[in-house]
Amino acid sequence: MPAETHIRFLDRRHPPHIATLILMAGLSALVMNIFLPSLPNMTEYFQTDYRLMQLSVALYLAASAVLQILIGPIADKVGRRPVALWGMALFMAATLGCLFAPSAEIFLAFRMCQAVIVVCMVLSRAVVRDMYPQDQAASMIGYVTMGIAVVPMIGPAIGGLLDEWFGWQANFWLMLLLGVGTMALIWADLGETGGKSGLSLAAQFAEYPELLHSPRFWGYSMASALSSGAFFAYLGGAPFVGTEVFAMTPGMLGLFFGAPAIGYFLGNYLTGRFAVRFGINRMVLWGCLFCSLGGLLSLLVMLAGAGSPISFFGFMTFVGLGNGLSIPNATAGMLSVRPHLAGTAAGLGGAMMLGGGAALSALAGALLSPQTGAYPLLWLMLITALLGTVTIVLVILRERQLGL
Predict the structure, then answer these.
(1) Which of 3, 321, 28 is closest to 191 using CA atoms?
(2) Does residue 327 fall inside a structural domain?
(3) Res 113 pLDDT > 90
(4) Has this prediction a pTM greater than 0.85?
(5) Do 321 and 230 touch, CB atoms closer than 8 A?
(6) Quick one: pLDDT at residue 98?
(7) Which residue range is the domain that position 276 belongs to?
(8) What angle is formed at CA 398 by the lines to CA 392 and CA 403, rounded to 5 degrees?
(9) How far apart, in whole angstroms, are the C-alpha atoms of residue 8 and residue 5?
(10) Which pairs from 208-212 meet CB under 8 Å and 24+ separation?
């Protein structure tokens, strides 16, 4: 429904303002990565092994994947607004648990609970699809994620500085304060955009086979999951590469760590400008190719013996650019396969993306050691991005065969 002409900011009787959707998705992105420069210090604080603390990324992504499978159908049944509010309340409780955890194991348990913030990412995209048709939805999702691209760009830098000045806990106090503010904004501005399905929850979950039997849904979901997989592998391995391979401080690592977000910002801007003109398939293909290019260039420089923090993190901007092109367009594609199941599709597609991301993040952490250097991470990123390229090419070929 073209609800954009009836939007009033801070009036929950109307659909939400774009700023609210940007801040919702932005908080979800911030929670994922702001504390990553603190992982070495958190390892020392809890007197444990780095690989155990690195699981705070993989377990978070895995929990996010599972939650998205639940969030989508629930939001299609009861509406977007109540699910968003309950999700925010649970997130704030989990953040308090992280702050006062007495051991690494308890911290990791509450860190998994923090993943409920993914409700903001799922519903911000579903709300956009509620309000706009497919190609315009891709454009609007691009603008939403362009706005939140600033968050992963500055989040690790802020997190690294907070760690140096006040300790790792400062990152989680900041998450809590932002959670309070975002919940207040959702309460005031997030008007309901999704009609309640009228189905029981069991019947709503029974709608999943309708999506799973769609080759187009699988194609867009896997293209999104594989192209973003390079970035999730980066999340799991880059803190180790920065600290152990290049001997960077938390503050310096935080500054360099956000390099992919520069490209991500540009990619989302290009999606917002050109998705309607060129179509989502072409945009996804270009995105996967740029992801592959970033991994390939960084690997070649490392193999030539010229690897440095500038080359390693600098070429990650191409990975970010590729994600900015591929993810919004692939998301719009998967949400448009069955528009009446937009919330379910957002949850299931996101679960595939984050489930794969959790596996790749954990794999990157397991493969890296001082002896291997950055090579396992770079090979993993390159192979994943190339598989994403193959997937979207298959989607394009199938649509040509069907005459779509």
Answers:
(1) 3
(2) yes
(3) yes
(4) no
(5) no
(6) 92
(7) 13-402
(8) 125
(9) 9
(10) 208/73, 208/344, 208/348, 210/338, 210/341, 211/337, 211/338, 211/341, 211/344, 211/345, 211/348, 212/348
Instruction: Report d(CA 252, CA 206) in Å as an integer.
Output: 49
**Residues 392, 334: Cα–Cα separation, whole Å:** 12
Q: Are 392 and 281 in contact (CB under 8 A)?
A: yes
Q: Among residues of the chain, what percentage have pLDDT more than 70?
A: 84
CA–CA distance, 68 with 397 (Å, rounded to integer): 30
Q: What is the dihedral sign for C-alpha 268, 58, 112, 170?
A: negative
Q: How many structural domains are present in the chain?
A: 1
Whether 1 is in a domain gets the answer: no
User: For residue 4, is it within any domain?
Assistant: no
Residues with Cβ within 8 Å of residue 352, at least 6 apart in sequence: 65, 221, 222, 224, 225
Nearest Cα to 75, choosing from 125, 140, 3, 11? Answer: 125
Residue 168, helix vs strand vs coil = coil
Instruction: Kindly give the residue spans of alpha helices, DSSP state H, lying in 115-149.
Output: 118-131, 134-148
CATH (domain of 86): 1.20.1250.20
33 with 44: CB under 8 angstroms?
Answer: no
Query: For residue 189, what are the CA distances in angstroms to 14, 119, 173?
Result: 8, 16, 25
376, 247 contact by CB (below 8 A) = no
| pLDDT for residue 389 is more than 80 | yes
Coil, strand or helix at 82:
helix
If you average pLDDT over residues 244-269, what whole number do you get? 82
CB 187 within 8 A of CB 81: no
pLDDT digits (tens, 9 = 90+) for 142-155: 667 666 666 766 77
CB 4 within 8 A of CB 123: no
Residue 29 to residue 120: CA distance in whole angstroms: 10
Name the average pLDDT for the chain: 81
Q: Which helix (H) or strand (E) holds 380?
A: helix 375-402
Indicate left, alpha or beta for 47 from its phi (over 0: left) and psi (-120 to 50: alpha).
left
Q: Is residue 155 part of a domain?
A: yes
State phi, psi for 192 to the nearest 5 degrees. Answer: -70, 130
Contact 319, 263 (CB under 8 A): yes
Single-letter amino acid code for the residue at 14: H
Distance of CA 119 to the CA centre of its chain: 12
Residue with token string 């390099």: 259
